[in-house]
Amino acid sequence: MADRDVLDVPALTATLDGKYAEVRALVRSNLAAHAGILEDQRTLPRDEFRERVLEVVQEMAATGQTGFGFPAEYGGGGDVGASVAAFETLALGDLSVVVKVGVQFGLFGGAILQLGTRPHHEAYLDDLIHGRLLGCFAMTESGHGSNVQALGTTATYDAGTGEFVLDTPDDRARKDYIGNAARHASHAVVFAQLVVGEESHGVHAFVVRIRDDRGEPAPGVRIEDCGPKIGLNGVDNGRLWFDSVRVARTDLLDRYAAVTEDGRYTSGIENANRRFFTMLGTLVQGRVCVGGAAVNASKVALAIAVEYAQRRRQFGNPGSGTEEVLLDYGMHQRRLFPLLARTYALHFAQERVAADLHAAFSDIEEEGAAELARRALESRAAGTKALGTWHASRTIQECREACGGAGYLSVNRFDALRADTDVFTTFEGDNTILMQLVAKGLLTDYKDSFEDLDQIGLVRFVASTAVETVLERTNARSVLERLRDVVPVGGRTAEEVPDLLDSRYQLELLTWREEHLLASLARRLKSGIDAGTDPAEVFSRCQDHVIGAAHAHVERIVLEAFLDKLATVEAGPNRDALKLLCDLSALSGVEADRGWFLEHGRLSGARAKAVTAQVNELGRRLRPLAQQLVDAFGIPREMLRTELLEFSGS
Amino acid sequence: MADRDVLDVPALTATLDGKYAEVRALVRSNLAAHAGILEDQRTLPRDEFRERVLEVVQEMAATGQTGFGFPAEYGGGGDVGASVAAFETLALGDLSVVVKVGVQFGLFGGAILQLGTRPHHEAYLDDLIHGRLLGCFAMTESGHGSNVQALGTTATYDAGTGEFVLDTPDDRARKDYIGNAARHASHAVVFAQLVVGEESHGVHAFVVRIRDDRGEPAPGVRIEDCGPKIGLNGVDNGRLWFDSVRVARTDLLDRYAAVTEDGRYTSGIENANRRFFTMLGTLVQGRVCVGGAAVNASKVALAIAVEYAQRRRQFGNPGSGTEEVLLDYGMHQRRLFPLLARTYALHFAQERVAADLHAAFSDIEEEGAAELARRALESRAAGTKALGTWHASRTIQECREACGGAGYLSVNRFDALRADTDVFTTFEGDNTILMQLVAKGLLTDYKDSFEDLDQIGLVRFVASTAVETVLERTNARSVLERLRDVVPVGGRTAEEVPDLLDSRYQLELLTWREEHLLASLARRLKSGIDAGTDPAEVFSRCQDHVIGAAHAHVERIVLEAFLDKLATVEAGPNRDALKLLCDLSALSGVEADRGWFLEHGRLSGARAKAVTAQVNELGRRLRPLAQQLVDAFGIPREMLRTELLEFSGS
What we know:
Two copies of one chain form a homodimer.
Chain A: H1 9-17, H2 21-33, H3 36-43, H4 46-62, H5 80-90, H6 95-115, H7 118-129, E1 135-138, E2 154-158, E3 163-167, E4 175-178, E5 187-196, E6 199-209, E7 221-225, E8 238-242, E9 245-248, E10 257-259, E11 265-267, H8 272-281, H9 284-311, E12 313-316, E13 323-325, H10 330-361, H11 369-402, H12 404-408, H13 414-421, H14 431-452, H15 455-474, H16 477-486, H17 503-530, H18 535-566, H19 573-592, H20 594-599, H21 605-622, H22 626-631, H23 637-640, H24 643-647
Parallel strand pairs in A: 1-5, 2-5
Antiparallel strand pairs in A: 2-3, 3-9, 4-8, 5-6, 7-8, 10-11, 12-13
Helix pairs in contact in A: 2-5, 3-4, 4-6, 5-9, 5-10, 6-7, 6-9, 9-10, 9-11, 10-11, 10-18, 10-19, 10-21, 11-13, 11-14, 11-18, 14-18, 17-18, 17-19, 18-19, 19-21
């Protein structure tokens, strides 16, 4: 296929790379230099591969690549945004390396930086940034999973010796799935219920030595290997038990709370619940990073599948007698192009959440004023992490299938890509739970804006929701349609059929869905509670609605991020291509949920069919640009491995 | 969880096992006896695991388990249906064993049985049934994939010596992905273009010795290992090249065509195209078997996920202070129960296609009359294979995620289950291509029934499609609704709202969708052709419509098979449970495609919402039965492995 080169690929790469092009270039060069790890992943026994991954991580650390997020005074780069960009880009390569970096620098390092104070920073940061001190992040327990507030591990203050005593009361409270714990970490940040005297103060974090200088478990610490996993076998996940393990009073990471020598608990945050969520909030960077890594893993899969589909011929064209290339088939375009468009969309949504993270964490000393922004950030990070990781699972699988049997051979990248990314939907917050977190935030926001409404606004609001309720109950869709004839919808009358490629119209659709889902969810929850139903039962019954509302919200902010980016790109073929991708991402999303839009009278049948036709048409327009659009991801050629492309034997 | 035992589980197992309960019991007992293979799969190096899989296959063969499909005179069981039942049941265990069995007995053995004649049967069947002669099935080539008719390998008749000379002209024509070829097979059934004199007669099959007695490649044969794969690493897939490899004239499998000593080509089937598809049609058993294996692999995943979700507690019930079990969450029910219901539905659809296969192949000598039935069988086998294998991929993945991090540990079965089944959507016919085959058959049927219509029927038919076309074009949904008021729909007036749980209504919906999609597809194809568009372009543009029509057809026959089965079950709690599963399978299918039903005015918005509410309600009703419903699958406990269930620490 000699498609015309209509796009300026380097310029498109620059648009994607954004502010941190240099950081990304450094990581790409490190990836290419360590490309052998992809072969090691397939061929080395597990123990050797774990050591190899550690070596690569330490060699990359030596280039400064993993230290961007730490203060300059400890040898870091002092730039949170750069740290996210580096991490994301690393995900074009082996993902055990990525996760090992995340555990060591993001979780372990991040906890010391964010939950600790100057003495901890001085004691640990320089060594950990340079990979001399290896640590792990011991939060999750076997019996509690995502419910961190219910952890069983205890840290009891012994005023006699001025120490905390850590204990694992039972097997449900063993620390589980802890990366770096089975083999490499000498230290752990351990989350435990802090008990002073008779009183429990909730979950706090402690620095605990878990291995001695010879690498043996420290006294009272038991360590077990979690064993082989579906993927990420270069990361040594382990389980930890503590039996009367004593640590100094100063080993409590005391940014938000401390215990005085004589056993008095003090905290700048009175409310225990708020304190807990403030501590957890500092960990938002991990979610932002995982979301970005997922998007970049998707790019690798798409780059391989698109190139394969341009080379691989299958079945005859009855006209010409030659076999057609796969990418000329409508169904193949349908399989790959909406995912390609969505990958661009999520890339820009990721750029936005990373920028928000950077802004929120750039001055870690400033509190209070930043708190609201941080809450919004947490919600955004949860939402983009969930959508990004679901997207990666789906995209990598679809790309594997689109490469047929060739995609099933381990020599090609899909094996490792799908196995390694599979757990992304589960770790750093299970996606289903993260989406509930998003929804919870939205309901609070909703209540806030409701309270802020003036009298007229309030009446209008209630009236409009009441009308909708009636419409839905009576199925009088025709009433809604008649209303449309006279009531302006989004500034238009119903006679002016809006252009499907009008971005404002697309945004209007997504916004309408979000608001409608939230309003109706609020009503359902309220009426359940009002009727005296057990709140757990109300929640269980509405859970799909809760998650649907969160989805709708995140979809809308993903589209907004793409539109914001579009507005910054100069007119020309590159912008036209990005607009095409933006349309395809938005409309394929509307198409996928057209049942809902039809059900709620927001799309007519003919309109819904027009959306499907437009998605097909956009695919045909995208066809000649496809190779350049994946080239623009700037994936080092070594990361694609070319066996499968040769296999296609074009 | 002490749920009441409302079901008679042994009776339900008997309903599922059907006619071949004894065969299934034999396989279950063989599985339990070889349960160690699940551990070997995780721990042995690849080469050793391959040998271990071969041992297990041979030990199972010794019990008669793998020979049911062969004539009794050669030591087989003479019962095709039993052979499918045995194969399916085997899929509760390690899937490399399953695929190795499929290659040796189904593909290699099946080709000799179906394409060969008595001399071939006498020469090979006894040895191959008992695992003394190992063979492979060399059809697929690297450059052609699913397009078998375009194979490049040639078999040229040399009248001087009375031999065929096999050649691989280029790397696109190398045989690829051939199971049993890399290590174990001494013989191969090779598909090649038969050339006699100057004339090519299309693809035929030959028995070729590929290894000598010492296991070295035979003269002129080159063999390469395909290397590690995502899964199924107990199967030795390889590539084959032939360089002037000579085989006797009688090594042509000559049931449908032969070459005389003096080089004259003869065949009972004149038309070359028809001959080709007749030969391929004999391979339908492989598809039936793979579909059944996929359904059974899904059962294993569901049994683990359901039991886990009944033990695992997560987050507090604000009322009681205890954590709730996962399966009490509405979202968790939504994740698992429609898949459970669908697994039952596909089980019965599989039972039906296996029975059709049995009927069609029970007397392999009879031709002609059975051909129509065989064509219908091929279509049904293609459709259920595609739906079953897609279902397995989706179900296993969803179950893995529903078990969170525990599901990611290799010690539990999801790792192997998902990796091994992943290629099921691709092999024995890529699903996308199979669905096109289904659609093609339907369009032919459609044309047939059109021609059979009488004058009045014809007028009615054209008028009704014309009305629909107008409706769709003008989006006058309200017109349709008004029409409904006066026109009986399925024997009711619009005022009588049919019960969603009325099976006839569900079937009516699925039938209406199928007919509508077919009629509109026929019109689109016709009008594209009439307009002079390149047929390849017409096809490419309609490809999603083609596959949608096939989907709708298979969905309908799946529901019919379930309803047929229901009619045979005695009234009581078991039948009530099966009816519940049938409703849930049908309605969750309607819900998933409600966009289409709404778009085409076949469901109103309120009705579509009622479907969603009913799916949730059915999930709540299913909740107390869930454990018994997976127990009824009769999976040997050893196949579930209990590590994950212990991990849940309830």
